[in-house]
TrEMBL record, chain A:
<keyword id="KW-0677">Repeat</keyword>
<keyword id="KW-0862">Zinc</keyword>
<keyword id="KW-0637">Prenyltransferase</keyword>
<comment type="function">
    <text>Catalyzes the transfer of a geranylgeranyl moiety from geranylgeranyl diphosphate to both cysteines of proteins with the C-terminal sequence -XXCC, -XCXC and -CCXX.</text>
</comment>
<protein>
    <recommendedName>
        <fullName>Geranylgeranyl transferase type-2 subunit beta</fullName>
        <ecNumber>2.5.1.60</ecNumber>
    </recommendedName>
</protein>
<keyword id="KW-0479">Metal-binding</keyword>
<dbReference type="InterPro" id="IPR026873">
    <property type="entry name" value="Ptb1"/>
</dbReference>
<dbReference type="Pfam" id="PF00432">
    <property type="entry name" value="Prenyltrans"/>
</dbReference>
<feature type="domain" description="Prenyltransferase alpha-alpha toroid">
    <location>
        <begin position="11"/>
        <end position="303"/>
    </location>
</feature>
TrEMBL record, chain B:
<keyword id="KW-0677">Repeat</keyword>
<protein>
    <recommendedName>
        <fullName>Geranylgeranyl transferase type-2 subunit alpha</fullName>
        <ecNumber>2.5.1.60</ecNumber>
    </recommendedName>
</protein>
<dbReference type="Pfam" id="PF01239">
    <property type="entry name" value="PPTA"/>
</dbReference>
<dbReference type="InterPro" id="IPR002088">
    <property type="entry name" value="Prenyl_trans_a"/>
</dbReference>
<comment type="function">
    <text>Catalyzes the transfer of a geranyl-geranyl moiety from geranyl-geranyl pyrophosphate to cysteines occuring in specific C-terminal amino acid sequences.</text>
</comment>
<keyword id="KW-0637">Prenyltransferase</keyword>
<comment type="similarity">
    <text>Belongs to the protein prenyltransferase subunit alpha family.</text>
</comment>
<keyword id="KW-0808">Transferase</keyword>
Amino acid sequence: MTSSSQLLIPLHVRYIQSLGEDDLTYHLTAHLRMNAVYWGLTALCIMDHKDALSKDETIEYVMSCWVDEAGAFGPHPDHDPHLLPTLSAIQILVIHDALDRIDVPRVTKFILSLQQPSGVFAGDQFGEIDTRFLYSAVNALSLLDQLHQLDVEKTVSYIKQCKNFDGGFGAVIGAESHAAQVWVCTAALAILDRLDVIDQDTLAWWLAERQLPNGGLNGRPQKLEDVCYSFWVLSSLSVLRKVSWIDADKLTSFILSAQDTENGGIADRPGDLPDVFHTIFGVAGLSLLGYPGLVDIDPVYCMPANLIESKGLRKGWEALPRKAS
Amino acid sequence: MHGVKRVQYSQAALEAKKQRDHDKLKAYLALSDDVIARKKSHDMSNEAFELTTRLLRMNPEFYTVWNYRRDMFIESLFPQRSPSEVNELLSDDLSLTFELLKQHPKVYGIWNHRRWCLEHIPDGPSPDDVNGYRNSTWNKELFVVEKMLDADARNFHAWNYRRYILATMPFPPPPKSELAYTTRKIEANFSNFSAWHQRSKVLTTLWETGELDRVKSIEEEFELVRNAMYTDPDDQSVWIYHAWLIGNGNYAARLQFEITSIQELLDEQPDSKWDKKALVDSCLELLAKLRDIDPPRRRRYDEIAEGIRSGNEMQ
């Protein structure tokens, strides 16, 4: 068994390349496939192995999920269109510089059609609402350069109403603060230049208190540590410029200890089965912590930072400086 | 995936597991391909409906199949049926989703389908009682969500669903009864942050409508919080709730009183009269102590101390 005090990049690259070999879990999660492709690709970018998966095959997969009647993407061929896979599709095409494959006006129309009178977005025509969908809409519109079509006031006013007694945000008005929902609201506000909505000291305190004695972060008080919160919590703190409020060394050790040192990939916590979701968020967390040899990630978009910067979309966030070694 | 342990299998056990998974996969793919093919050909038959039931039992996260099932209700199962029959069909789906929720309490698609069922309950049973079906269903829903919260008091899907039920009930119980529900949940377990959160929302409503006097209510909340603090001083929920109460009351006087109480808890200094400088000194002292006992967050305490020092110098 190799040591897990280092990020085992070649092993994780091979892990991502091997995903999709016929197993039950893979097929039971077809409804997440587009997201999974985006997670895998972004992880490869941050580990500086963008070309480890075929660009052409990836783009062909994305386009095979286009649902023409809706003007949107599903997660897998023959699955219904939805906002979440539509965002992931756009992100993948942006990373591969292939946005020209998208019918921008039609996708924009689909996204805008999902905004509710209250300002929140639904995920599809069946009407489930969640601040995750609000973020997906704002992110997608900004990547498509269509943000000017959004009713910003209405969108921001919904997020304002989601603010809780602890400074955090939930999935809908009235919902409990949860780190993933905090991230989507904070990142959406960053894109819309409305960070004034946040009680920054209070929220940064709530976020800092997610760190447990074992160094890992949880998503809410009294919950277990989980590697994915390395991203949700850390990126929110980056936007608030308070990454120093958590112990970077302890968190780094925790993430590294959750690696599967035999088969590659990162798990939610040490000893568990890895998956591509925890792999990207573990690697992204390490990047924000300045781990040597990784590429900068933009915490607002969860995409390579230089790419977002080149599109003129970089906001005022701060990560820890990249260590030399 | 969350919470799935890595297991070391022997070669023989690994082979056996691979075979079982392979057989399960074959069966799953056959069913999934059949349902998707029927969906594409717009098959709205009872047979197709039954197949979606089978497939959703195997994979309740397959949202496209929930969509197909709902389309079948609208296009073929509801039309030509009486309100009583429609109500019956929806009752069956509410039972199905309750069964699935017991095994999969956090799957969005199942909770969504419940809401959809509720939203499609027909008027009835009679023109004089158009909300009869709804009343009876909503009352059952409150019971269902209480069961889910008894099983996991931190399940945010269940709490969100509870708030949705209360907000849409034809005859909702008064906010004070929800306050009592949060009291029960908190007294059962002081670290139930979800219950403290709900309490913060209910109290805010009661203060805004004037049903509860804010000042008196906050005094009572400090009492509740004090009990919780003495029971479990390390519990985070209580301290976060406490910070919110401080922000809502008469700041200076309360802060003075609270620092005194906290000092008693830390058994640090005897009671004494405070003036403003003593308050600042006490804060700086506490921050230095916090740095020692909570090292991961030392940078935050440093920033706060800096803020107090520079603020104090400016006086």
